Amino acid sequence: MKIQALTESIGAMVEDVVLSDLSDAQFALLYQAFLQHKVLFFRDQGLTVDEHLALGKRFGELEAAHPFFPHLEEDNRVVVIETARGNPPGKSFWHTDMTWQSIPPKCSILHAQHLPQQGGDTIWCDMAAVWTELSEAEQESVQDKQAVHALHAFASSRYDDINEQGESSVSKRSEDFPPLLRPMVQPHPETQQSVLFINEQFTRAIVGMSEQESDAQLERLFSKARQTQHQVRFQWQENSVAIWDNRITQHFAVTDYGDEPRRLHRVTVQGDAEMAAQPFHSNASQA
């Protein structure tokens, strides 16, 4: 197995390995690389659905079906991320997956099925490196703060069905996933690295600040994730695979391919109890 780092802090290309036939020793090496590099990339991995699921299970228990995303009929734990003619992708945001869920996922495994002729890259950002780069004053300003996370970003998206009465499926489903409170900075459960754990898609407000102050502070912090020095960009090919640590990264889908057909399958692994969120009470949102 050959593991080549792509940047100083995030991303590695892994070669000379077959993901559907990993020995225990190979998986142990792969797992350490996963913790070190935060996102791993592979080429030419013709995974079947069962092999994709089995690979995910080596990282932990799998997440149940996503409440909004489409999935395979044969197994609803396999999310389908697809663009088709007449159905272009929606607006893309930097995000950490499912931080609106009490325990966010540990990792995801994305397998490319078919792709546009050009475009459609994905970018990942190392949020531990972003935290380290903040000035001492910036770190102190958020060190003990909490932020509200919610699935509001799905409202009016391509995943929101509006019925004849004008009712939103996202609003209805939101009743099962009320807003949550998370520390803005928290340790990675395994490496103990400090992570700036916010994202522009699901982080809504900072507790103890006015709306104007919160929006301004969050935008300053979100902008750090958009800086390229802590990013790695992956150009997909058919049968490419990406495995990323959701506890320490954000990612962004580059939607520069119009409605050209693009399809990827995603399996997601359950997260760590140490990262469980607290319930949010709306009277706590303002100073």
Automatic annotation (TrEMBL):
Gene Ontology molecular functions: metal ion binding; taurine dioxygenase activity
InterPro entries: AtsK-like, TauD-like_sf, TauD/TfdA-like
Ranges for domain TauD/TfdA-like: 3-268
GO cellular component, as recorded: cytoplasm
Single biological process term from Gene Ontology: sulfur compound metabolic process
Alphabetized UniProt keyword annotations: Dioxygenase, Iron, Metal-binding, Oxidoreductase
The UniProt record lists the keyword Iron: yes
Domain of life, per lineage: Bacteria
Pfam families: TauD
Keyword Ribonucleoprotein found: no
Family: Belongs to the TfdA dioxygenase family.
PANTHER family: ALPHA-KETOGLUTARATE-DEPENDENT SULFONATE DIOXYGENASE (PTHR30468:SF1)
Protein's name in the database: Taurine dioxygenase
